[in-house]
Amino acid sequence: MGLNVYAPASIGNLSVGFDILGAALSPIDGSLLGDSVSIESSTTGDFSLQCVGRFVDKLPADPKQNIIYDCYLAFRKAMADMGRTDEVAVSMVLEKHLPIGSGLGSSASSIVAAFYALNEHYGKPFSEAQLLAMMGELEGQISGSIHYDNVAPCYLGGIQLMLERDGRISESLPVIEDWYFVSAYPGISISTAEARSILPNHYSRADIIDHGRYLGTFIHALYRGDGQLAAESIRDVVAEPYRKQLIPGFDAMREQMMADGALAVGISGSGPSVFVITDSKEKAEQMHRWMQANFIQNDRGFSHVCQIDTLGTRVLEETA
């Protein structure tokens, strides 16, 4: 029996919550913005991996250098640690639809889809919390440190607040249902390591106070269902002032979006993708068209009108 598992794109940080907030995205036109992994028992008895999709050209040619293979090894080791050592190997196919270094949780999407597929295939030996911990560990191998602001929303859906205490990694926050997100990738790449290296080692007391105020107000506003107050609180004093220089045309884009009625504008994760929030579908579609004409730099770029994906990772198809 085979499975095809889909894991959605995500916005890490959401501007106001550096490393502790993340949101999953779902295009309103029904298309899939994320990676998918198919899995079935190997007919040869050996692991195999095939990579397909629009952004497959940036992946290593050797399947054993791919993060999916690392997921497989980590999963099999975890099963062996619980005494399960005789399971048949698998054949996997990664459909790579998110560009690497895009700020849309590309590596997280592949990792989450792989672990979810492996867990389903082998009869769900691990709990949600155990899987999430494994996902975070693999993501940390790529970014240099373990953080869950992409893997948690990608896996669980919605808007997630990272707790990482008392065995709880994240908690779902309320969603403002009439928010529309324009998610635009300009077509260039920024590595997470590069985006982190540009940040200062120390922040002023005023910045720390502002960060706490904005984050607290944002979460408070979500629970009140006050979309206007929540959007006004989406301000980034930690990363955006430094990272925006890596994104060509960012200031001009922000100015245009706010003039067109945006509620908030921010950098998606480490960039270079950006997100714009509005409470009007018509405005979102207008902004989407502007992004296509003015922000996207090459044929690798794209823009989508999205809402929050509340489903998270799921099985798209099962085959006999």
From TrEMBL:
Domain spans labelled GHMP kinase N-terminal: 66-158
Domain GHMP kinase C-terminal: 219-295
Superkingdom as given in the UniProt entry: Bacteria
Chain positions recorded as ATP binding sites: P99, I100, G101, S102, G103, L104, G105, S106, S107, A108, S109
GO MF term list: ATP binding; homoserine kinase activity
Pathway, per record: Amino-acid biosynthesis; L-threonine biosynthesis; L-threonine from L-aspartate: step 4/5
Statement: the UniProt record of this protein carries the keyword Cytoplasm: yes
SUPFAM superfamilies: GHMP Kinase, C-terminal domain, Ribosomal protein S5 domain 2-like
Enzyme kind, highest EC tier: transferase
Catalytic activity: L-homoserine + ATP = O-phospho-L-homoserine + ADP + H(+)
One of the record's GO cellular component terms: cytoplasm
Localization per record: Cytoplasm
Keywords tagged on the record: Amino-acid biosynthesis, ATP-binding, Cytoplasm, Kinase, Nucleotide-binding, Threonine biosynthesis, Transferase
NCBIfam families: PRK01212.1-4, thrB
PANTHER family documented for this protein: HOMOSERINE KINASE (PTHR20861:SF1), HOMOSERINE/4-DIPHOSPHOCYTIDYL-2-C-METHYL-D-ERYTHRITOL KINASE (PTHR20861)
Function: Catalyzes the ATP-dependent phosphorylation of L-homoserine to L-homoserine phosphate.
Protein family per UniProt: Belongs to the GHMP kinase family. Homoserine kinase subfamily.
Protein name: Homoserine kinase
Organism the protein comes from: Corallincola holothuriorum
